[in-house]
Amino acid sequence: MVQTSERIASTASERYLLIYMIAVLAIVTTLVIIFFVVFLKRKNKLLLDKIKQQQAFEEEITLAQTETQEQTLKNIGWELHDNVGQLLSFANMQLSILKMQVTDDLKDKFQDTTDALRESLSEVRALSKTLNNEVVLNIGFEKSITNELNRLKKMKFTSAKLKIIGDKVGFTNRKHEIIIFRILQEFLSNSVKYSEAKNLSIILDYKSDTLLITAQDDGVGFNIGDIENGSGLINMKSRADLINAELDIVSKPNNGVVLTLNYPLFNSVNV
Questions:
Q1: Alpha-carbon distance 133 to 67, whole Å?
Q2: Per-residue pLDDT averaged across 184-188, rounded?
Q3: In this structure, are residues 205 and 212 in contact, taking their beta carbons and an 8 Å threshold?
Q4: Which segments constitute the Histidine kinase domain (predicted)?
Q5: Cβ burial 195-233 (10 Å sphere, 16+ → b, else e)
Q6: pTM for the whole structure
Q7: pLDDT in tens, 94-111
Q8: For the chain, which domains are there?
């Protein structure tokens, strides 16, 4: 009986010890899991914070570059309007005076030069307006686009048209107006330099909460993969990212270029 009692007591002690060890192991395992989960969450939070800081830094850099570019363009616009414009006006006036002093048979020879100076002066004045953001804001978004298209049509294009669909909605942040206009200017500038296009078109489609812009030329086009890292495309996409707009460019060789920009009209981004 004594041996039996001792054996039962020993078995019970071993059982309690086993339960205690299992409980300790479970607690340790739980603590390790909790520590690991907390570590992962903290690590992920640090990574997200780092990514956000990097994005904020890149946005600040892009914004600073954009503001610098705007100031540079404004200065060039002033220079063109005040200095170059005055020089062309003076040259045109002097040519007109000289024309009055020559014989009739020589006057016709001055006409081409006079016309060229007059066209140059008109072009300089039109260009100076599009480079100055204050003038663009004063004229208005749609009128500025129309002026730019008219200027380009005089240069080389058969047609350059603006089409407006829907009821116009004003920009809640007028700086966005300038940014979108500069994106379109970049597109039009590339069309002038590279596309060999004859026709340009821009469509402003005002929807309930977005403005869908489509700009298109009928030029030689290009392979989009060849220019993905081009400065012009990067510049346009950086500007679009600043205002939470979605930008896409589609092109194939001999099929022209189509740019689409989807801009949220009620945009809270403060640039």
A1: 11
A2: 90
A3: yes
A4: 180-267
A5: bebebbbbebeeeeebbbbbbbbbbebbeeeebeeeeeb
A6: 0.65
A7: 666 667 666 666 666 667
A8: 158-271 (3.30.565.10)
Task: Report the C-alpha gap between 13 and 138 in whole angstroms.
Answer: 91
Strand-pairing partners, residue 203, are: 163, 214
Cα-based distances in Å from 71 to 107, 149, 234: 43, 23, 20
- Residue 173 is encoded by which pair of tokens? 């942040």
Return the beta strands (E) in 94-253 as ranges.
159-165, 199-206, 210-217, 246-251
Task: Name residues whose C-beta falls within 8 Å of residue 266's C-beta, 6 or more positions apart in sequence.
Answer: 172, 209
Q: Which class for 167: exposed (0-12), middle (13-18), buried (19 or more C-beta within 10 A)?
A: exposed
* Residue whose entry in the numeric block shows the structure tokens 């040259």: 91
CA 238 – CA 186 distance, rounded (Å): 12
